[in-house]
Amino acid sequence: MSSTLAGWLQAVALVGALALCYRPLGDYIAKLLTTAKHLRVERGLYRVIGVDGDADQRWPSYLRSVLAFSAVSLLFLYLLQRTQQWLLLSVDNKAVEAHTAWNTAVSFVTNTNWQSYSGESTMGHLVQMAGLAVQNFVSAAVGIAIVAALIRGFTRNRTDRIGNFWVDLTRIVLRLLLPLSIVFALVLVANGVIQNFHGFHDIATLGGDTQSIPGGPVASQEAIKELGTNGGGFFNANSAHPFENPNGFTNWLEIFLLLVISFALPRTFGKMVGDNRQGYAIVAVMGLFWVASAALMTLAEQHHGGAALQAAGGAMEGKEQRFGIAASSLFATSTTLTSTGAVDAAHDSLTPFGGGLTIFNMMLGEIAPGGTGSGLYGMLILAIVAVFVAGLMVGRTPEYLGKKLGSREMKFASLYILTTPTIVLVGTGLAMALPGERAGMLNSGAHGFSEVLYAFTSASNNNGSAFGGITVNTEWYDTTLGLAMLFGRFLPMVFVLALAGSLAQQQPVPATPGTLPTHKPLFVGLLSGVVLIVVGLTYFPALALGPIAEGLH
Amino acid sequence: MSSTLTPTPVETTEAAAPHRVSGGLLDPKLILSSLPDAVKKLDPRVMVKNPVMFVVEVGSVVTTVSAIANPSVFAWAITIWLWLTTVFANLAEAVAEGRGKAQADTLRRTKTDTTARRLLNWPAAQDEEEVSATALQLGDHVVVEAGQIIPGDGDVVEGVASVDESAITGESAPVIRESGGDRSAVTGGTKVLSDRIVVKISSEPGKTFIDRMIALVEGASRQKTPNEIALNILLASLTIVFLIAVVTLQPMATFAGAPQSMIVLVALVVALIPTTIGALLSAIGIAGMDRLVQRNVLAMSGRAVEAAGDVNTLLLDKTGTITLGNRQAAEFQPAKGVSVDELADAAQLSSLADETPEGRSIVVLAKTEYGLRARAQGELTHATWVPFTAQTRMSGVDLDEADGVHSVRKGAAGSVTNWVTENGGTVGKDVAELVDGISAAGGTPLLVASRIGAKAPRALGVIYLKDVVKEGMKERFDELRRMGIKTIMITGDNPLTAKAIAEEAGVDDFLAEATPEDKMALIKKEQEGGKLVAMTGDGTNDAPALAQADVGVAMNTGTMAAKEAGNMVDLDSNPTKLIEIVEIGKQLLITRGALTTFSIANDVAKYFAIIPAMFASVYPGLGHLNIMALHSPTSAITSAIIFNALVIIGLIPLALRGVKYRPSDASSLLRRNIGVYGFGGLIVPFIGIKLIDLVVQFIPGLS
To answer: N or C: at which end does chain B have fewer Cβ atoms within 10 angstroms?
Structure first.
């Protein structure tokens, strides 16, 4: 079977599997977010942390909880890395350097999982399991909690309560992420992903050299790495490493896992607002971008000019032989469209347009389908912008799901769409203006610029994948990229929660034939156009100087 | 019920009254006369209120400085066109305001210095003194006689007069103003044509209706509406994003080996930020108010106009809005053994002395349907006419014939039945059934009976009076339904009658036997469900409901209380206009949305013009993006900026007129507007920039 055909079959199987999960998983998440019943273990937890599980919070209080929880997580993770040499299971790793520890702590708390270090030679098993893996769970849960609060803004009327963060967080971890992770960790182990507490094994290779083979509890971390759209690899090579991703099936499964929750959340949204068609419209836009991007990426990688590339049947540099071009393209597309950032190929070696696509995918704001929760709230914000402009064109004060989009709502939506581009562009601009930081680039010219642009795009959008090439484990990059991740994650959350609070207070407007329908193909097209134009217009000059300049001859 | 003294409001067409400034779209004279205003608005303190155009102005200053420092044809070309962009934006606003000013001037002319005859001790004494109208205080009494101008707003407290209100309404037919009731309000600046009235002044000096009108049409009291603010926020954030995109572009460009000049960077910012909508936004708002003024509707705030576009429920008074003012005879239904012709003849005879509209309609029906010539009262000798009175509720005639007195009576079923029984006759069961049948169908039955000599009178049959629904109303309501607007008919009729008319007119719902309290309750109920309600009203007892409604249109013929309570006043006092007001509100929002879409879509072409111009020198591959094949980098950038400026001028007429609006459902409206303004906005600049480039390339220094 040719690799192209295999790629097609994988893609079709992927769409089928995601479609199968859409309803049950989406409904399940909706149920766990809305039910009044607590599990016994949850009640116990609430008692321990001193939370009234039945009391909902106002948006500022919800936000304070999110920020407090994340701040404590950040501090804990930082200290854990700085003191690992004295703790158990350090596997002979030293204390992580201050700037790396800061960058990594921010990275995992913000669901970015940007790694300026090499996993196997920096982090001991304890940090991996008690630090990084835990954040893989809770940072993903925080994203879903935020979108739950936003959806409640739409569903609730005349109230200032948008839910309880602690309840949302607990339920999402206990009822959703943990069970799924356990199941899929076992599946991964069954397919060859390692799970042990070994350190390095020195073995003699066939060629007579010695090689150091790392061990570790990989499978348990691998499942949530994909499910929670985290992407932080146990090993430096991430999902290109055979212990993380041994074969074609695990590769397919990992793509599936990193997409499944984000693609099911629109169903949760539709279910919660009481109109499943709204969910279909949103998932259609997400799917459209994902399919188009995957197709373009495969095209770019397979039909690249150049004699060597043609002889190899496409751009094979930096790709794993066991996955091939099509599956690697699918992985690269999915990981950059979901804020996962796991990689099974070197993005630096993608063709100019292929690499450009990965950057563009992230620039979309991680919304198609995006990170767990964050993808949906990002898309809903763009939907609000689309509804605002389109709503005017049907001659009414714009309203989305019965809630009017007035100046307050537009203020928060505008601030949201302003935040990430500002961080990306200012960060990249600064890096290009400082001669010392430019020196970190491996390549010169357009490609070198793409490396820096990629780094800031990835960090600000909480993706976490790297183009490679550029040396980022410096104090400057660790600090600035850390700030980019931090602001890129939490500033939008502030605006989303404020928006949720503002929406929840409204009295809904009944829908009439004069109301803009937000569940029809026309709206799907419109929203896609707004996503494309709002993003495209902002980043076009930067893209022109990077991948476009490189790709056009 | 409306007073019979008031002439029924004339159905006005869309055309404005003769003395008003019509919608003359872009009178070159108006542009010229607005130019000084446009330049005056360059004051940064004024400009800063419009963030998008303020950025353009700052950019113009920056390019001016760098053009002086490093003069070149290109630098000056960009500088000049950037300043023109700013001026054009101000021009749009100035033109929109200019049209209002012209109207205000007309109004101001009516505000000539009037002297008032103030009554010192009214009503105890009739002593008067002459004071200036501006010295009148709230609660003063003034006397006005034929030929004099009413010195201030107030209510007639004594007398009746015909008043010429054409100064305000543009309607030349005089109206009657009388003390007491709902027709007591008079407006300062209008002229008494006959008789003498005493007016109690109800406004403070400088705050009269005319003063407010002038302020409104001039836009002096204009405040940004909620939706305008929301849009401004979005535009401001887009401006910031593009500003950041361009500022951070410089280090990236420097790295690429192509640092850009200040001129080019400013040009890129201006090309990208949404200048088209930014320039036209306030003009759109002013023009929306102005379009209402042209239809003789005064909106007290822009907020009200916007709310009109959002209205979910229209409360429409039956009489005058849905039906013609009066009931009309529709059919003669004879009793058993009586021919229709006989009934028609009797009905006509008995109605000759009935001067009410109903009575006249009977004569008309007899003539048109049965060919009975209307007989003049004089041609029948020996006739004693019994005119219609409110007490007897009957009219008729007694004819002195050879065989005795022939009496014919027509009137309310109860009254005529009484007349028949009092004179020894009986009304047959069949006639009673006819009467009930008409009542059940929502009509009004009038009984016709006759008596010859001393014989017992007999009932001849029944005249079917019905409300006549205005032509085209059903279609209008269907249209409203498609727009998602529910119509509720308000009437004092009994539920049965109301239901029949509601069905015939095609309204969605009705409120029968409506009291002002019922109206109020209905509005509150609708609003509780999140709906916006619009209504018209004229009486003092409508005032609370008018105030409660989201859009309350007071009739100019109404009381001062009603006019104060509503947020719009219809000078033509035509309740049907409510529908037009809703359409204008929608059109206003659509125009904003359409131009925003157009403005953003324009950016795509501008990128294709400017980006290759900036970077093709270092990355020749980017030359492929020059799909318009523009002549040179400088001509490309200049063309984009010129297009950007000219498109503002080109769209001023559209901003003032509003985009075309056809009532339809949201989906088809959206499809059409995205097609025209979204895709149009993508394509037009490609053509425009190319055409400008074809000219500009011949300018030395730009090629």
So the answer is: N
